[in-house]
Specification:
By secondary structure, the chain is mainly α. It contains seven helices and no strands. Helices cover about 75% and strands about 0% of the residues.
């Protein structure tokens, strides 16, 4: 148990303070840096900072859920989703730097809260654990669709990253459903949306 705690603590530190790496090519790797005016750059930076923060939260959620999952199949599904979310971290982090910014200063706060929520979801049982994963991914995919509508038209690099992320999130949701995810009650889904709105508003600005 002590060794496991050390491993999980190390995961948290790496998520928050180390640069992430992607096994797959970055979706925008063959695209040239677009010329954006100050307002467009600031908006694209804010959106990518929000997306990076969302991936930090996803790491914490999946970490907590995998710790408390009872079914090895469910645990493996959560770990696979978390692995691909690390790639999202790498993509968004590099794009933030290219736009002249830095990740959100609130990331440690959101990480801690998301870890606690993930542990709690796992303790409720595997079908609810997977249900939380499915609903999270549905909400994130919808959120990314919204970003695609507001990203500056000339910013093809950010758009390519967001599109690939959205496709991955939709696949993770389908995977959770196939493994027996239970639909979450409407009040829970509403609370999740409210929490996400708070996170995105704060992260967009800082």
């Amino acid at each position: 148990m002590f060794d496991q705690l050390i491993i999980e603590f190390d995961k948290g530190l790496r998520t928050l303070f180390a640069s992430s790496h992607s096994a797959r090519p970055h979706p925008d790797q063959d695209m040239e840096q677009p010329e954006l005016d100050e307002a467009a750059t600031r908006h694209a930076l804010g959106l990518m900072r929000v997306n990076h923060c969302g991936e930090v939260c996803a790491q914490a959620l999946y970490q907590g859920q995998a710790l408390t999952a009872r079914d090895p199949v469910a645990r493996d599904a959560l770990k696979q989703a978390a692995f691909e979310e690390v790639e999202h971290l790498a993509w968004t982090e590099r794009r933030i730097r290219e736009l002249g910014g830095r990740p959100s200063v609130f990331n440690p706060l959101w990480y801690g809260g998301s870890l606690a929520i993930g542990i709690g979801a796992g303790l409720l049982g595997d079908k609810w654990n997977l249900g939380f994963l499915e609903e999270t991914e549905h909400q994130v995919a919808a959120h990314l669709d919204g970003h695609l509508k507001t990203l500056p038209e000339g910013d093809g690099k950010s758009r390519a990253i967001v599109e690939r992320m959205r496709d991955d999130e939709q696949r993770h949701a389908a995977m959770a459903h196939e493994h027996g995810a239970a639909p979450l009650p409407l009040p829970v889904r509403g609370l999740m949306k409210l929490s996400a709105r708070l996170m995105t508003t704060a992260s967009y600005r800082a």
